[in-house]
Amino acid sequence: MKRTTLSLLFLLFSGSIFAQQKPALTWKEVSKWNSIRSYTYALSPNGQWMSWAKGPTEGDLQMEIRKTSDTTSLVYPIGATASSASFSKDSKYAAFKVSVKDAEAKAALKTMKPVYDQLLVVALAGKDKVTFEKVKNFSFSKDSPDWLAIQFSPAENASKDKDAPKGTDLLLYQLQTKKSFNLGNVSEYAFNKAGNLLAYTIDANGQNGNGVFIRDMKTGVITALENDKAVYKNIRWNEEGNAFAVLKTVKDDKYKTELVTVLGFNKINGDLTAKTAYTGAGLKDFPKNMGISPNTNPYWSDDQGSLFFGISLLEKKDSKGADSTKKDKTPVSKADSLAKVKPGAKTDTLAKGKPAAKAPAKNEAEKPDMIIWNWQDKRLQSAQQVQESRDKNYSYLSVYRLADQKFSQLADSNMKAVDVAQKQLYAIGYDNSAYELMANLDGQSYTDVYLIDLKTGKKKLLMQKYYQAGRGYLSTSPNGKWAFYNQDGAFYSINLENGEKYNLTSKIKSSFVDELDDHNVSKPSTPAFGWSEDSKYILIRDNYDLWKISADGKSVTALSSDWKKKGLQVSRRFNIYPDDKATDFGKNQYYGVFSSIDKKSGIAILEAGKNSLKTLFLDDNYYDGFGKATDGNVFVYSRQNNEKSPEMFVSSATTLSSPKQITKNTPDQDKYAWSSGVKLISYVSTNGDTLQAALYLPANYVQGKSYPTITYIYERLTDGLNTYAMPAFPGGGFNKSMYTSNGYAVLMPDIKYKLNDPGMSAVACVVPAVKAAIATGIVDEKRVAIHGHSWGGYQTSFLITQTNIFKAAAAGAPLTNMISMYSLIYWNSGGTNQAIFEASQGRLTPGYWDNWEAFTRNSPIYHIKKVQTPLLLLHNDKDGAVDYTQGIEYYNGLRRLNKPVVMITYRGENHGIAKLPNRKDYAVRMMEYFDYMLKDKAAPEWWSKGVNRLDMEKHLENRAFEAAEN
C-alpha cells in the first residue's frame, strides 16, 4: 500500500515537472500552428451537420464536416486556401472548393501560371463524393434540395480584354440522379428563392445568341425571354422569387460608356412572361446627358409596380470619335527609374546620364501634368484621386413607375445618399452639400434630411442641419411608415405619413449618451437594436438596460431590470432568423450579456411573448458566433477565454442547456507552455478616474516571482479580457500568446481621454496601471517594456518622453508631431487628418494655430530631449494612414541626440504589414529586441551594430537560413 502511494506521488510529481518543462512556443511553430479558421463555419439547414476549414498557419488545409449529434466526422483535403462549405436545403449534400496545394500555389505565383479550383460534392449519408475541375463558382438551388449549379472558369487561352465575352459553361447537376445538363456561354445565373426557376444570361463570341433565359427546374423547359446583340448582366430576383430585373447594355460609337436598358420580368410563365423595358434616354422626364448606369443593380418594388435602378452621366465622344478620357502615357522619369532599381542591379546607363525612357511625343511634351488644389474644394484633390473610380461610376438612385410610366430621379449630385424604406412607399434622402467642406475639415458631420414620396417623387425637408457625427442615419420601420433617430442625447420617432414626431426616451430616467465615448463628438448615442417585426416597437439601449418603446413613445417597457447596479449591459442582439426583417416578439430572441465590472459575458433569452430578459449563463468566457439552424431547433455558439481557443458548442434546447462541444481547435497547444491565467487590476489614474487593466500571466507562473512584462496599449482593452490570441504573425508584430508562452507577463490597461490632452491622458492612465501591476508582485519593475501600433504607437512614442518607467519601447507607425500630422493627408482615403484630429481619435481641437500649447504639449517630437528609453521604431514607406515622414522625423531627431533607436521600414508596405515574409521578419525582430532588453539575451547585430545597405541581402539570406535551421 505504501509503495503504491509513493509510486502515485512520484508519478504526480513527475507529471508536474513534465508540465513545467513544456517548451515555449517559437515562431517556427507558429508557421505549423493548427487551428480552425473562424470565418469558415457553416451549419446545415437541419442543424445536424457543421463544417469548418482547419490546418496550419502555412501549408495545406482540410475541410471537416461533423455531425452535431454524435462523433461522425468527414475530413477532406482542400489545398492552401480556406473556404466554407455550402449545404443543400435537405442537408443531404455538402459542397466546397478545393484549391491547389501550398507548394503548387507558390510555384505558380513565380511563373505567373494560372491555377484553378476544384469543387467537391459530398453525399453526407453514404460519403460518396464527386469532383468537378476548374470551377469558378457554384450554388445550390436555394429552397429546393434537387440541384447544384456549377460555373466553370474560362479557358486558359480566353481573351482577357474587358469587352471579350464572359460566358462559360454552366453545369446543372441533379443531386439525386447524378444527371448533368450543360448550358454553354453563361455569364451570370441565379436561382429564385424557391429554387424552381433559374434565370441566366448568355454572353457568347460575336454576341451570337446573347440574351436572358429562364429554366423551369422541374420540367427542364428553357425560355428565351429576350435575345439581342447586347450584354446582359446584374440579375436580381425579388424576395418572393416571382420576378427579377436585369441590365441590357449595348455599345454605341457616339458614347464613351454603354447604352443601358433596365429589363424587368414578372408574371413568369414561359413565353407569356411579362417584360418591362426602360431606357429613359430621350424621354421628356429623363435628365439630359444621363443614362441608365451600367454599374447599378436594378430591382423590383414589393408590389412589382416600380423598378429601381441608378443613372449616371452619359458622355459623348469627341467629334473624331476618340475617347477623351484615355490618359496620355507619361514617360518614366530618370528619378523614377532610379527609385525602382534593385540593390546590386547595374545602373551604368543611368549613371552616364542616358535617358531612362524615350522622349515624349510633341503633344505630350506640350501638355502639362498637374493638379490644381483650390481652397474651396469640398474634397481635397487627393481624396478626389483616391475616389475617382467611385465618382466616375457613381449611380444616382432612380425609379420608374409602370402604372403611369413616370420616371423620378431620387438622388442627385447634392443628395447622393438615398435610403428606400421597406414597402417602397417612402425614401429618406441626405443632402450634406452645404456642410461637406467643413465636415472634411473638422469632422463634424451635418446633413439636411428629406422625405421622398415614391408615389409622386416629391421631396419634403424633414430636418435641417441634422448632426450625424456618432449617430448615422434614420432607421425605417418594416411597414415603411415610421423612422427613428437620435438627436441631442435623446431618441425620437417620426410618422412619415403625417410628419408627427415623438420623444421616445423622455419618460426614462436614464442617459442615452454613450458614457465611454470620449471623442470630440456632441452627445454620442447609445446603441439601438431596431424595430419590431410589426413596426409597433423600437428597441433602444441606454448604457446598460434594453428598452421596448412604442413607436409613439407612450408605452415604455424595461426588458432588463436595472442592470446598471450589477454592472451588466445588453451588449448586442443575435439575429438568428435570416428571413426576419426585424425583431419578431412572437419568437424567442437572444441577446449578448456583458459585465463591465468583471468582464464576464453570456447569453440571455427574451422568450416569445415575454417582456423580461432571462440570463441563461454568465461566466469568465467570451461568447460569439451564436446562430440557429434555419430548419431545426439546433443552436450553436463559440466559447473562448485567454487560455482556451474558440470552440463551437451545440444545444437542441431553447435554454441552451446541456451544450456539447463539437470542435477541437488548436490541437497542438497542450505541447507548449501557455499563459497561466489573467488578473483584472483596478487602479486610479492621475486624473482621478477609476480604471482597469488586464494582466496576463506568463506560462508556468509561480506566485511570488516577478516577470519581465510587455505593456501593450491602444485605448480601452480590458473588454477583451477573455478573448484568445491565436498564435500568428500579425501585421503589427505583437502576439500576446507568443509572449506569455515565452515567459513574459503582458499588461493591457484602459485609457480614458481628456479633450486636448491625448498624450497626457495616456501618461495619466498607463503609468499608474504599470505601478499597480508592479504592486501585485507579478511584474518586475526593472524589466517593463511598452509597445503599441498606430494610435498605440503614438502613445508609446509620447510616453517615453514623459517617464523612464520602461526599460524598452517599440512603436509601430506612430504619430510623432501633432502639428505637422494635423495637416498631412490620410493617403488611404485621400482626406486630411484634420477631421480625424477634431472629431475622432486625435482629440485635439481646433487647429494648432488656436491651440498651440495643447498640440505641442502632446507631441512626442517637442519633448524628444527627455527620451532615455531605447526605441524600436517601425514605419513603412507606403503608410497611407500615418505619413512616413512622422517616423522619419522622430528617428532623425533621436539619432541627432544620440539616443538608441532603430527604425525598420518594409518597402511598399502600408500601415500594417501585409506580406507574410515581412510579418514574420518583424515579429522575430521585435521579440529579439525585447529578449535583449528585458531578458539579458545577446543583442541582435541589427540592433547593436546595424546593417550596411550593401550587406542587407546577405543579412536577410543568413536570417532565412537560421530560421530554417531552427
TrEMBL record:
Annotated InterPro entries: 6-blade_b-propeller_TolB-like, AB_hydrolase_fold, Peptidase_S9_cat
Region of interest (Disordered), ranges: 320-364
Signal peptide limits: 1-19
Annotated keywords: Aminopeptidase, Hydrolase, Protease, Signal
Annotated GO biological process: proteolysis
Domain spans labelled Peptidase S9 prolyl oligopeptidase catalytic: 767-935
Statement: the UniProt record of this protein carries the keyword Protease: yes
MF term (GO), any: aminopeptidase activity
Stretches with biased composition (Basic and acidic residues): 320-331
Protein name: Dipeptidyl aminopeptidase/acylaminoacyl peptidase
